[in-house]
Amino acid sequence: MTAQEIRYLKQLAREYPTPQAASAEIINLTAILNLPKGTEHFMSDIHGEHEAFLHILNNGSGAVASKIDKAFDGSLVSSERRALAALIYYPREKLIEAKATVEDLHDWYCVTLRRLIAVVKLSTTKYSRSKVRKALPKEFAYIMEELINTSSSPNRDRYYDNIIRAIIDTGVADTFITEMATLIKRMSVDQLHIVGDIFDRGPHADVILDHLMTHHNVDIQWGNHDVMWMGAAAGSDVCVATAVRNCVQYDNLDMLENGYGINLLPLALFSNEQYGDSDSSVFKPRKLPEEPFKPRDLNLYARMHKAISVIQFKLEGQLIKRRSEFSMADRDVLSRVDWEKGTYRVDDTDYPLKDTYFPTVDPKDPTRLSPEEEALMQQLTAAFMHSERLQQHARFLYSVGSVYRCCNGNLLFHGCVPCNRDGSFMEFTFGRNVFAGRDFLDFCDSKAREGYFAPEGSEERAFGRDFLWFLWCGRHSPIFARSHITTFERALIADKATHKEPKNPYYEYYDDEDFCRELLASFGLNKPWSRIVNGHIPVKAKEGENPCKAHGRLVVIDGGFCRAYQGQTGIAGYTMFFNSISMRIAAHEPFTTIEDAVRHDKDITSHSFTVEEFPKRVMVADIDTGVEIRGRIEDLKKLLEAYRSGAIKADPSKRK
C-alpha cells in the first residue's frame, strides 16, 4: 500500500473510525445497489411559461396521479382522486378552499391525512430508508417515519390513530399536509433534467428559475436563449440589447422591470425622441397587452422595439468585425444595406426594406452607436450586471448547467453536435486549435464559463462574453444549430423566403439509427437503453411528426410548451420520464391556469406512450450512482484491510 493510499484511507477513517463502521457502510451501500433506479423527468423549451411549467413540475408529467391510482385502485372514485391530486399539487390553495367549504373539517383532516400517508408509502417504496429520512422535514421527521413504516395490527392501529388525532388537535395539520404533499412530489421524481430554453417568449422565466433553485436534484443543458441571458448577466452589451428586444417583442416587460429591476424608462424616452414622428408599425410586438393597468400605447412598444433592434444590429456588426474567427462577416446586416435605395441584398437579390427611417444610422459607418445609444446601452448593461436576482439566476445556471450532459447512459443536449453534409463532425478553429464533436462542446462549455467567471478586464472574459453571443446565434453553434439567425430579415423584409434559418446537417442524420449509435459511442455511452435527448426544434405533432427518431434511439422533447409554438405543433409540449421499468413520453394539451386547476381540480390532459419497456428492471447498480457506490465500496474494503493489517488504527472513541 503506497503512502498516498494510506493518506487517503486515513481521511476516509475520519468518517468510518472503526472496522464495524466501515463494514456497516459496505452492507448499506451493497443493499442500495439492488434498489430500482429513481424516476428521471425530462422537460425542454419552457420559454417562460411559468404556470404550465409549475403544474407539470407538480404533477411529474402524471407520475403523481399514477401513484394515487395505484394506492387507491378501486377504492376512490375519479372525482376523489382528482381532488387528492390537486391537494398534492397545490396544498396551500386547496387548504384555504377546504376551510371555506368543508362542513366537518376534523373529519376531512382525518381522511386526507390517511390518504396522503398511503400515497407517501407507495412513493417511497423503491428508496432506502436513509434516503427517505433525508427528504423528510426536520420538525416532523420522526412522526412521518413512524407513519410511513407502520404495519397494520391492533396495537399499531391505535398508535397510528392517536398520531393522526394529535396532529389535528395540536393545530399543525395544515403544515403536515403541505409537507407530505412536498414529500410525495419529491419521491415521485428523483431527478429533473431541463434540456434548454427557460427564457424568452413566455412571461416569467424568473419565476421558473426561482422554483428550480429550490429543487432537490436538477440539472440544465443550456439552450440558446439561456446562454444569451447568461451573456447579458455577464455584461455583454449585445446580449443585453437582444434580451431587451426579446422582452419588448413578446410584451414581457413585467419580468424585466418588476422581476429583475431593469428600468426601461430611458429606452422609452430615447425611442420617442428618435422615432416619435415616424411610422414604426412594422416593429409592433407579437401580442397585445392583456393584463389590467398595462400600457396600451402599442406605438410606444413599436418605437421601443425599433430602437433596441437597431442598437442590437449595430452591436452585432461590431462583434462580428472583431471576432473574425466566428466566420460570420455576412451577418453584419447593416453593412449590407443600400441606404440610398433602401434595399438589402440576400444572395444576388435586392429586397426593399419595409421601414427605411433610421436616423441614428450613419451610412458611412452603420455599426457605430450614436452618443445617445452609447449612453443608453451603458445604463442598460449596468442595470443587468447589478440586478441581484438576475445574477443569482445566472450563477445557478452555471452551477447546475452545461452545454451537454451524459447521465445514466443517456446524452442530453439542447441543439446538436455540429456535423458536415457527409455526417462527419464539423471542425472549428480557434487560435491554433481545431475542435470537433465532444471536444468542441467541451471547448464551448469552458468559454461560456470564462465569459462570466474570468477576471473583469481580461482577454478571457472579453472573448468569453462574445462567445456567449456566438452560442446564442453563431453559425453552427451547437446550441443554436443553424447557419444563421434572420432577426433582421423577419423584421424588415416582406418576402418570407429570406426568413429561413437553415439547420445544421445534424438534422439530416438524426433520424438515422446508425448515426445516433455512433454519436452515443463517441461520448462513451453504450447502455442497452442509451438515447439522445434533444430539445430546440419543435415537433409538429399535428402534421404527424413523431418525437422518436432513429427507431427511438433519439427523442425530441420540444413539442410546443410555449404558447407561441402551439399553433405549429398542435400540442402544448412533450415531457419524458425514465424509471426502472420503462422510458415514456407524455404529450400535453394546453394548460389553462393554476386558478382553474385549484378551483375545479383540473389536471393538465396528457397522453403518454412507451419509448421502450425494459426486459428487466434497471437498478441503482446499472446507473452512474452505481459506479460511484462500487468505487466507494472498494475504498471501504481497502480501509477494512488497513484496519485488520494494522496499517491504520481504529479509533472507537469517535464511533457515532
Characterization of the model:
The protein is an alpha/beta fold. Strands 7-3-2-1-15-16-17 form a seven-stranded mixed sheet. It has a five-stranded mixed sheet with strand order 8-9-12-14-13. Strand 8 and strand 9 (410-413) form a beta hairpin. The longest helix is centred in the middle third of the chain and has 25 residues, at 298-322. It starts with a helix and ends in an 11-residue tail after the last helix.
- What's the shape? globular
User: What helical percentage do the residues reach?
Assistant: 40-55%
Rg calc: 28 Å
Nearest-integer average pLDDT: 91
Determine the N-to-C terminus distance: 28 Å
Which secondary-structure class do the elements indicate? alpha/beta
Strand percentage lies at 5-15%
H/I helix tally: 27
Strand tally is 17
Low-confidence stretches: none
Give the neighbour order of strands across the main sheet: 7-3-2-1-15-16-17
Q: Largest beta sheet, briefly?
A: 7 strands, mixed
Topology:
Elements: H1 3-15, H2 19-33, E1 40-43, H3 50-59, H4 63-71, H5 78-89, H6 91-101, H7 105-123, H8 129-135, H9 141-148, H10 154-169, H11 173-188, E2 191-194, H12 205-212, E3 218-221, H13 224-234, H14 237-249, H15 253-259, H16 265-275, H17 298-322, E4 337-338, E5 343-346, E6 349-352, H18 371-385, H19 388-400, E7 401-402, E8 404-407, E9 410-413, E10 428-430, E11 433-435, H20 437-453, H21 459-473, H22 487-492, H23 506-509, H24 513-522, E12 532-534, E13 548-549, E14 554-556, H25 563-569, E15 574-578, E16 582-588, H26 594-600, E17 606-613, H27 624-645
Parallel strand pairs: 1-2, 2-3, 3-7, 9-12, 12-14
Antiparallel strand pairs: 1-15, 4-5, 5-6, 8-9, 10-11, 13-14, 15-16, 16-17
